[in-house]
Amino acid sequence: MSRKLIELVTGMLLILVTGLFWGTWFSLSRTMEGLSAETFLTIGKEIIKNVALPMSIIMPASRVGLIILLSRSWKKRTPYFYCLLVTLLLFVVVLIITVAIEVPMDNKIKTWEVSTIPAEWTAIRDRWEYYHTMRTFVSLGAMAFFITAIMNRDNKS
Fold first, then answer.
1. Could you read off the pLDDT of 19-55 as tens digits, one per residue?
2. Is residue 105 over pLDDT 50?
3. pLDDT value of position 156
4. Using CB atoms within 10 A as the burial measure, which of 70, 83, 87, 148 is most buried?
5. Minimal CA–CA distance to 127: which of 137, 135, 115?
6. Of all residues in the chain, what percent are helix, strand and coil, respectively (each to 5)?
7. Interval 78-91 mean pLDDT
8. Is 120 helix (H, G, I), strand (E, B) or coil?
9. 64 contacts: CB under 8 Å, gap ≥ 6
């Protein structure tokens, strides 16, 4: 498979991951504190249900693409290589935030009902939002490094 095709597919996957985070943050997360418990649960459960499977495929696939691109540029150690490396490292941070912090909270939220929502639900919501914001902006930074890598690649290889 050609490098340009791998870059295209990897870039599209990274855009999908980052776009999901950005879209959720921009359209919903910044106003979550004003939602009632019932509205929060309804929206939260739907988002969790809609994104769990696709993201469990898209996120690892994008990392595989980055690893392939890095392995193909390992010997040259150009700005292209280093920007890809930073992209991968930042998306690993995104993955850690997702798997270690966000998913466990999502799994709790999935079990809640309006009648059984815990008293500290707003603290959990606020913690989720804090880490979602962090994850969103780390992924945006990673995208900037990926774009910089593409802009600095050696077109001869």
1. 999 999 999 888 888 889 999 999 999 999 999 999 9
2. yes
3. 55
4. 87
5. 135
6. 85, 0, 15
7. 96
8. coil
9. none
Helix axes 121-151, 3-27, angle to 10 degrees: 150
Determine the pLDDT at residue 157.
47
Amino acid found at 135: R
- Confidence band of 5 (pLDDT split at 50, 70, 90): very high
3-state secondary structure (DSSP) of residue 94: helix
Which residue spans within 47-93 are E strands per DSSP?
Answer: none
Cα dihedral 151, 8, 16, 70 sign: negative
Angle at which helices 121-151 and 37-72 pack, to 10 degrees? 30
Instruction: Say whether pTM exceeds 0.85.
Output: yes
User: If 0-12 CB within 10 Å is exposed, 13-18 middle and 19+ buried, where does residue 24 land?
Assistant: middle
| Residue given tokens 């290589």 in the structure block | 81
**Nearest by Cα to 139 from 93, 81, 104, 102:** 93
Q: Which residue has the tokens 């855009």?
A: 15
Is there a contact between 126 and 149 (Cβ–Cβ < 8 Å)?
no
Residues 6+ apart with CB under 8 A from 126: 33
Give the length of the chain.
157
Handedness of CA 106, 107, 112, 116 (dihedral sign): negative
